[in-house]
Model the fold of this input.
Amino acid sequence: MNTWKSIIKESDFSLQNLPFGIFSSNRRQPRVGVALGDEIIDLAALHDIGLLGDLEIKKSVLINSSLNDFIGLGRKATTKVRSILQQHLNYPKSELKDYPSLFVQQSNAKMHLPVKIGDYTDFYSSIDHARNVGKLFRDPKNALLPNWRHLPVAYHGRSSSIIVSGEDIIRPKGQLKQDENLSPVFGPTQRLDFELEMGFIIGKDSQMGSSITTAEAEDYIFGLVLVNDWSARDIQKWEYIPLGPFLGKNFATSISPWVIPLESLEPFRANGPKQAPAVLPYLQYKGKRSFDISLEVAIEAEGGEEEILCQVNFKSMYWNMSQQLAHHTINGCPVRVGDLMASGTISGKTRKTMGSLLEITQGGNKPIKLSNGTSRAFLQDYDKVIMRGKCAKKELRVGFGEVRGKILPANLF
Ligand code: MN
Done:
């Protein structure tokens, strides 16, 4: 799909993509925008000139510090906005050309957390990740726990510490147990890690007591973002028995600012791995429910250069998003617009496809060498971690942009 706007061929934000986000600039208070190439289309300005047609969207939905009200209009409306934009941007004589103020350079804008997240759930859906971690912490022969192939394991995370790409991460403090035989001590984590994940944003409320089937699950998925589930491995290891992750996880989770609508990803549908043993009927599904998204993680040490640590594909996930949602609601738990469901760390079997330092360095035992001569078992202060995602097929590109964060030293007191 072509446009009269000049967009480089490799741009993440093609006319096929048109992701939604919340931006502000000098002259514009936070509002809904659509990324296109290096620019942002201001939907409130588009509304002002009457180009959103007969959608009857209230202005307050668009001049808003979150996408929730916009998403809440429903997929019919949000898809219509996309198709209006695609028509106008494709048509060489479009009247959009008369309104240069509809467009804001991304470099002149500040991106905000795109959604007000009510509830946040983090799954554990990569079989290689679960195996890699199981081998490190438990018996290598029984790396997967007995429930793993029967249900998408997850824990409830915390939405209050979800931040947008670019915000710094303060090294968390907590209880650390440095040796089996020693008592726990208190201090800044010595094992700060990242987790490469994808997340999906709920686009429609479900009812308390009802369950979403795998067949209807995608109606409830508005779009996808990149997620970095920052983790303090020493805090996590000591606290997680028997109730699971807590303070080792909930100090910060970063997401990318642009929500990629599910329909942008249509051309990149893929088959997931074969599931054996067969799953229970409520987890069975039809069609291609995985997506071919190339992901990477880079690290940039202070004064150093970006270095790629991991490259892996989202389609390798054992449990897909439809199954995750069906499982999440099978007990009648409702989901609401703006909820975030993250995939869990995405990893392959080999070192260069592992989505966390825990796996890459085998529990910190095999540090990696960086090109500036230093090595890393876990993250150091002022390290930056950058994650990117991209779909590509022939000429077609749909990218996620990036999620980045920098580690700052722990607060002293
Ligand atoms: Mn995680």
